[in-house]
């Protein structure tokens, strides 16, 4: 059965749905393969992974996963170094582009082995280290997306997110759209970073999301920044003057003029200036 590439939730499949086999998982459109742990490809990204216990270096804490990449494993032992190819490169691409990854866990219920759909996770970072057997492995850190709620391992939750992101509509992610608009080039310093999976930038929310700040996940509240400028901006070490569009430091030194090709609500800049950077007008 040919399964179309789809990122995000699959219509009609609730978080907590249990499947009796990998073929049933595939037929539901959650994961393309019957054997491989990573679904996707190196030029689109990874849309799903399966946690089945095949790699002993995996760590699964429910809302947080330390996932071992694919390759070099025979009979449960790591016998060769892994490489950043195939599924490993696909997961790295999902990290860089902020694409959601469906997680399917192997689980035993009522004395029967099966698989449970555990919801959407984000790949936070990846690195290389020696496996417990010696050869090098790729490690991927995944966090459960807040919209999914807490993972309940024993019972189906019946919860599902409302968003479905088809591959053909890849710009439906707000931060991804802004990053692509600027070709992954920092709006503050003009730097475009190249990493092993391609260009890398981060989507920075001007007014922080949720909580006491109540910022919106909207294009008018997002900037495309390099990691260094993102941290400085989030910590209030830099801010943007809403009227002049000048980027300033906490000591009011002018760094540069903001490169701006999309509308950002001036009120968000003002909020960041006063509430995050602590700068009065």
Helix content: 10-25%
Give a short account of the largest sheet.
Answer: 8 strands, mixed
Residues in β-strands, percent: 25-35%
Number of helices: 5
Report how far apart the termini are. 62 Å
Q: How many strand units?
A: 19
Average per-residue pLDDT, rounded, comes to 86
- Structure class: alpha+beta
- Whole-angstrom Rg: 21 Å
Would you identify the regions where 5 or more consecutive residues have pLDDT less than 50? 155-172
Shape: elongated
SSE series: EEHEEEEEEHEEEEHEEEEHEEEH
Structural commentary:
- The chain has 281 residues and is of the alpha+beta class.
- The protein is 16% helix and 33% strand.
- The protein has helices at 22-27, 86-97, 174-181, 227-234, 266-276, and strands at 6-8, 18-19, 38-41, 45-51, 59-60, 64-68, 73-74, 77-78, 101-109, 112-130, 136-144, 164-166, 193-195, 198-200, 202-205, 222-225, 238-240, 246-249, 254-257.
- Strands 2, 3, 4, 5, 6, 9, 10 and 11 form an 8-stranded mixed β-sheet that branches.
- It starts with 5 loop residues before the first strand and ends in a 5-residue tail after the last helix.
- The model is unreliable at 155-172 (pLDDT under 50).
